[in-house]
Specification:
Layout (H helix, E strand, L loop, with lengths): L1 H25 L3 H13 L1 H12 L7 H24 L11 H14 L4 E9 L2 H14 L3 E6 L6 H15 L3 E7 L8 H10 L2 E5 L19 E4 L3 E5 L17 E2 L2 E5 L1 H18 L18 E8 L7 H12 L3 E5 L7 H12 L3 E7 L5 H8 L2 H7 L2 E5 L3 E2 L3 E4 L3 E5 L5 H6 L2 E7 L1 H17 L1 E2 L2 H5 L3 H12 L5
Parallel strand pairs: 2-3, 3-4, 7-13, 10-11, 11-12
Antiparallel strand pairs: 1-8, 1-9, 2-5, 5-6, 6-8, 9-16, 10-14, 12-17, 14-15, 15-16
Length: 480
């Protein structure tokens, strides 16, 4: 018996050494590496299981294929833009100021997607209006409807949009629905049967099948995308479900931000959907059928930034760092999850020291207490530097917005935490338009007025058990 115990102990720590070797080879952030190594050493079996489930990155989509396919679309758009320029159209692509041109160039290098003008952008912050606009666009679709969501609930709202897709498919419109396997794990065959029977193509992103080569518990598709006929598109932070309408008492009222895009930017959302659909199904959608000549409806410059763990560079974190660093007068941030890495904290502190007004509004209620406590552990150093922090307790604040100097802004599906920066597939829009930026900035300011300002005495006066919980959650921040 003792010899068996010794053998198991040797095997256990041999496996631990091999897993630690994997951690060292990946060369993540030092704190994340140390956190995983300590977890594996202190609880070898549990630590190794957790690392295999949520620490390793099995998702590597071919960067070469992505570059080639996106290049085809970019060339198509550039040709179209060149034709318009040759006609001396007064609405031709405007030139960005030098500082914003640097941001655009950075986004172009990180995501291979340029900013395009001629877009009409509408902003919704209320769920009923968002759903009404989405339903109208789906009903008006003549050729295809492409929907991609992290969460789709089997409730009244979910059934309504399911039945709408069924109607469109029966009328001859191609309908594709891409859902995240973890975000929609409760959707059963009974709910999906009407869709499949009507001819709607349904796929799940990275289904939880351990025997498959490609699967992951933690690398999730957090994007919310809807594209109709390649001309009208929606994106933002709102999923499909009753909770997003504030119909659940504990999650009411609910505040989100969603965009409707008409113009060349819709094609880049289509391209993002096509890439994700190809990854999930191997169906190639890169044809003129799905990428029509864009309509030029407005004058707004929009740049799409699809990010995810298939990228070697943390594009989202790089852009947000650049946004904060470029601010001259003000930066306003609204996010439901706030677990900043060291680089972002440094940028926020530096902005305050430069005299920039930094406002941060977060929800008081969260579906993840660890994330809430981890975020609060950073309050003291931010407040000391001059960051204005507000906790919104008049409902659930789910919007993900950053506005810079009321000149340009970022809107999308990404939170300000390690998960969105490194683990989730996210989609963010960079909007170079003063009117849109001012509208969103005013929305954040309104939420700040309704929220409770956090004071230093409140943070330093927290009870001992609260301080311990926040400190422990902060230790886990690199893994969240």
């Amino acid at each position: 018996m003792p010899s068996f115990a010794v053998l198991m102990l040797v095997l256990n720590y041999t496996a631990a050494v091999l897993v630690i070797g994997s951690v060292l080879r990946r060369r993540k952030e030092p704190m994340a590496m140390l956190a995983w190594i300590f977890a594996i050493l202190l609880a070898p079996v549990l630590g190794m299981i957790l690392y295999v489930l949520i620490g390793s990155n099995r998702v590597r989509r071919s960067a070469l294929r992505r570059r080639r396919r996106i290049a085809n679309l970019i060339n198509k758009l550039r040709k179209w833009a060149g034709e318009r320029a040759q006609t001396h159209d007064p609405d031709a692509e405007p030139r960005l100021p030098e500082d914003l041109a640097r941001i655009e160039h950075m986004g172009r290098r990180l995501a291979n997607l340029p900013a395009t003008g001629g877009n009409e952008v509408r902003v919704w912050g209320e769920a009923e209006a968002t759903y009404a606009a989405l339903e109208e666009a789906i009903r008006a679709a003549e050729r295809h409807v492409h929907l991609e969501y992290y969460s789709w609930n089997a409730d009244q709202t979910g059934r309504h949009f399911r039945d709408l897709l069924v109607q469109k498919a029966r009328s001859g419109v191609e309908c594709r629905l891409l859902l995240d396997a973890v975000g929609c794990w409760r959707l059963g065959r009974r709910f999906l049967r009407p869709l499949l029977k009507a001819g709607v193509q349904v796929a799940f992103f990275l289904p939880l099948r351990p025997l498959r080569k490609r699967w992951s518990l933690h690398l999730r598709n957090h994007r919310k995308i809807a594209v109709m006929d390649g001309r009208v598109a929606f994106m933002g932070s709102q999923n499909i479900g009753d909770e997003y309408r504030g119909r659940l008492k504990r999650l009411s009222p609910w505040y989100d931000t969603h965009l409707r895009l008409v113009g060349p930017a819709a094609l880049f959302l289509q391209q993002t959907f096509a890439e994700d659909w190809y990854f999930a199904t191997r169906e190639d959608l890169s044809s003129d059928t799905y990428f029509p000549r864009p309509d030029r409806r407005g004058s707004t410059l929009v740049q799409l930034l699809p990010t995810g763990p298939d990228q070697d560079v943390g594009a989202l974190g790089q852009i947000i760092f650049a946004a904060v660093a470029s601010a001259e007068r003000s930066i306003r941030i609204s996010t439901p999850y706030f677990v900043p890495d060291q680089a972002l904290r440094m940028a926020l502190l530096q902005a305050c020291y430069r005299g920039v007004r930094v406002e941060l509004v977060l929800p008081t209620r969260s579906d993840s207490l660890i994330v809430l406590w981890a975020g609060r552990s950073f309050y003291a150093e931010l407040l000391q530097a001059g960051v204005e922090i507000y906790e919104f307790d008049a409902g659930v604040l789910h919007s993900k917005i950053i506005t810079v100097d009321d000149r340009w802004c970022m809107v999308g599906s990404a939170n300000m935490d390690v998960r969105s920066f490194r683990l989730n597939f996210e989609i963010t829009s960079l909007i170079y338009d003063k009117s849109v930026a001012s509208e969103l900035s005013q929305s954040i300011a309104d939420h700040c007025r309704q929220a409770r300002p956090i004071r230093m005495r409140e943070v330093t006066g927290r009870r001992l058990h609260q301080q311990l919980l926040e400190g422990a959650a902060r230790l886990l921040a690199p893994l969240l």
